[in-house]
Specification:
mainly alpha, 120 residues, 4 helices
Length: 120
């Protein structure tokens, strides 16, 4: 669990150090998205072991985090090519943004499957 967090932190630091001043909002969104992602991972992992009342609270917290993260994710992935100094940086950014979107899709799927025992 520590290794993925450290990897995400290193990724964030490298993105921030390379980023242009125009990307400050972009980087803020990334930091908030990573924070929400880690919080969601913890909540989803805890969910099955909780009693029913705490499961309801856990799901409410997950909903709040998803509702916070998804508009940020939409803004984060909408940065146009013109905001990057070259195509290589834009291409790398596209790969990173796609990976982050995939992470949130997996979190949503995991959350749903933890609630539905028949989920495969």
């Amino acid at each position: 669990m520590i290794k993925p967090i450290l990897l995400l932190l290193c990724l964030f630091v490298s993105i921030v150090s390379v980023a242009d001043q125009d990307h400050s909002g972009h980087n803020d969104n990334l930091l908030l998205l990573l924070k929400d992602k880690i919080s969601l991972q913890k909540l989803i992992t805890q969910y099955p072991a909780l009693p029913a009342q705490q499961q309801a609270q856990n799901l409410a917290q997950q909903r709040v985090l998803f509702r916070h993260a998804l508009p940020l994710l939409q803004d984060y992935v909408a940065i146009p090519e013109s905001q990057y100094p070259n195509m290589a940086m834009y291409h790398d950014s596209l790969k990173s943004r796609a990976a982050l979107m995939n992470d949130f899709v997996e979190l949503m799927t995991d959350s749903q499957c933890k609630q539905d025992p028949s989920c495969g």
